[in-house]
Amino acid sequence: MDQLLGNIRAFHPKEPARGMLNYDIGALSKRQKSNLNLRKTIERGKNEIYLKTHPEIKGLISILLRYVLCSQFSMNIHETIGEFFNRPRHQVVADLLRYFLRTEQELENDSQTLLFE
């Protein structure tokens, strides 16, 4: 276990983002960089709208994160996520339904609190 932790390098803010080590930052003109950043912003906005209109995706992400964070510490995140999705389908659906019931109750409690204030 200690050997695994020794292989992890600390993050340094001046290092290139993961996956961008061999990218030539100067290859794009200012206009191209501006267009690329605009496209990224538009794409993020579309993704947010999609997630807002599909609460089941948000729920699935939430229960997946809870599963990963509550499971025993594992250095292999891909294996842990694989275990989550390899569970019987009814277990995943049951977790998702519990998530929706809990969030619905929280919304009701919040709305009642606002009414009495």
Descriptive report:
- The protein is an all-alpha fold.
- The chain has one domain (30-114).
- The chain is 71% helix and 0% strand.
- The chain is built from five helices and no strands.
- The chain has helices spanning 2-6, 30-53, 55-70, 77-86, 89-116.
- α3 (55-70) packs across α5.
- The longest helix is centred in the C-terminal third of the chain and has 28 residues, at 89-116.
- It is extended, with a radius of gyration of 21 Å.
- The mean pLDDT is 80.
Can you describe this structure in just a few lines?
The chain has helices spanning 2-6, 30-53, 55-70, 77-86, 89-116. With 117 residues, it is mainly alpha-helical.
- Percentage of β-strand residues: under 5%
Order of helices and strands: HHHHH
- If you average the pLDDT, what whole number results? 80
In percent, how helical is the residue content? over 70%
Distance between the termini: 52 Å
The total number of structural domains is: 1
Compute the number of helices.
5
Largest sheet: none
Question: Rough shape?
Answer: extended
DSSP E strands, number: 0
Q: Which residue ranges are poorly predicted, with pLDDT under 50 across at least 5 consecutive positions?
A: none
Radius of gyration: 21 Å
Which class do the helix and strand fractions yield? mainly alpha
InterPro entries: RIIAD1
